[in-house]
Specification:
By secondary structure, the protein is of the alpha/beta class. It has helices at residues 33-41, 77-91, 112-123, 148-156, 163-167, 191-201, and strands at 6-10, 27-28, 31-32, 47-51, 66-67, 97-102, 127-132, 135-144, 172-177.
């Protein structure tokens, strides 16, 4: 890749299964999940923003730009991707692609961008999604920033919310990772998941 992608860390969810609050601020092994995500993506990307709604001050210690959804009413991950695309277009215009990652994934791989881009480039795809085992992880992906007005139209005019419905319109590729011994895209949605992540940390 001639230019590293920009990155948006998606932290805009409502965390209902965690009992409210911000999932990325939960700690695993003495370090917040968000710290783990930032440490992973920083060397892989040219610029990083955090997509979160509500008071951005709760993320102030990380000193990252915090961009809220421009679509009202918690429109889901696609709204976060659009917010990331808009931010990248303004603040990292040299980046043709945007990496999106979920902020509740403590074990993201260090070759995330490299593998996504190799597969995307080979397929000349607009979007490349991470897979592990037999599961797709549609919010962990490379997106062509030039799709942002198409995405805005889908969200605003078509009221589209499902990622798969929108991505089906474009040329997609899928990059594979093994799911064992630890799934790199394990996400911590519940208190039980936090306990499981503590156990898995010993195997990473």
């Amino acid at each position: 890749m001639s230019q590293s992608p920009a990155c948006v860390i998606l932290a805009g969810g409502l965390a209902r299964r965690m009992g409210g609050g911000d999932k990325p601020l939960k700690s695993i092994g003495g370090k917040t999940i968000l710290d783990r995500v930032i440490e992973c993506v920083t060397p892989q990307c040219s610029a990083i923003a955090l997509n979160a709604n509500g008071d951005p001050a709760r993320f102030a210690q990380w000193k990252l730009p915090v961009v809220a959804d421009s679509i009202e009413g918690f429109a889901g991950p696609l709204a976060g991707v659009l917010a990331g695309m808009d931010w990248a277009a303004q603040h990292a215009p040299q980046a043709r692609f945007l990496l999106s990652v979920a902020a509740d994934c403590p074990f993201l791989p260090n070759d995330l961008v490299e593998r996504l881009e190799v597969v995307r480039e080979a397929a000349d795809a607009d979007i490349c999604v991470a897979h592990s085992g037999d599961q797709a992880h549609p919010v962990i992906a490379l997106w062509r920033v030039a799709l942002r007005e198409d995405l805005r139209h889908a969200l605003v005019v078509e009221n589209m919310r499902k990622i798969d419905r929108w991505t089906a319109r474009y040329k997609m590729a899928h990059a594979e990772w093994p799911a064992a011994p630890v799934d790199p895209f394990f996400n911590a949605n519940t208190p039980e998941d936090i306990a499981e992540a503590e156990r898995l940390l010993r195997e990473v």
